[in-house]
Amino acid sequence: MEPSSLSRPNLSSMRAFSFTIYGTMVLVSTYFPLFYAKLGFSNSQIGVLYALGPMISLIANLLWSIASDKYRTVKKIMCILLIGQIIMSYILSISTSFSMIMLIITIFYFFFYPVFPLSDTIAINAAKQHGKSFITIRIFGSIGYAFFALVIGYVLSVIGASRTMWVTMAIAGIALLITMFIQDQSSPVAKMNMSGIWSILRQKELLWFFGCVFCLAISARMNDAFLTITLKDLGAGENVIGWAQLASSCSEIPIFLFLSIYGDRFKELPLLIFASLVFATRFLLVSLTGSAYAIIAIQLMHSLSFGIFYVTAIRMLTRLIPDEFRATGMALFTIAWSSASGLLSGTLGGIVFEQFGRQRFYLIAMTFALIACIGFATRYFHRDPAIRARKSIGSSKKG
Fold it and tell me: How far is 138 from 124, CA to CA, in rounded Å?
């Protein structure tokens, strides 16, 4: 009786928490660049501020996971992180110089990025404890992202982009309140197995996979960093920007559900080839259009690009990497998809956008997606010598 009595409130709290924290993700990825632009920063400066996040996340995730392991608590660490976000948001709200904001946003990212892996840790443990699927909790993050993308856009269109940090404080405060109702979990975030890195790097197929992921990630992160700036340049208000983010986040939900049920019926590499082609098509269309409303429609392709890629890539990783090195492989995937690519696309992307304009910027993003597509396709059509040998042996036995 006790587990069932705890199940509903804890899972409900986790769903509410997942829903809420993705509101801060919307702010950081979508509306922080508008806040920087409102302060008069150039596109290259905005690119630098964006690139700081992925760089800091490498250090922050490691340090806070060590703290979580040492003190055997996730909930208390989460509270510290959210309080840190609130304090740093307030300091950002009263800062105006680029050097000061670069310093404060670095500290903000230190408290911001670890929230998501810690949240996944609690959610996975809670789902297992109560015999539920992790997707039944995680999908509320996608719903929350869609909700806040629209609501925040309308709120900022009324109160102004200069009030972005006050909205950040409000959402982080709500998340902090919800945290009080979550059962603590002593399980730490999975650590990177250093001995497993060499074992992984010796696998040619994995190296090929990570290389393709990195190229595709550069194009995706370029879009993430400068989509809002692009929309603003095309005359879009905060509410239109919200609709663009709503379109992408809502579109991924049915794809996630479909592939989680039927994904095993399709081979991985053809799906990755298709997703890369859709990414390239997206960025080509953005480079050609001159309408902010057309970009909203283009954002619906997020389901067939990111949605298919993400589910399929995770599935391929679980197949290629042994269980004992799974955490290491996931850490390397995160570095390729989020951290290293975000650092490169933010710094260099800002310079490209400022010097060459939106059209060339997105054509370059399209090129990286095509390189990834060619890489996946080459791997798919390339027949490994060992596979050919096994087939020839099989044929000879039949003869």
Answer: 9
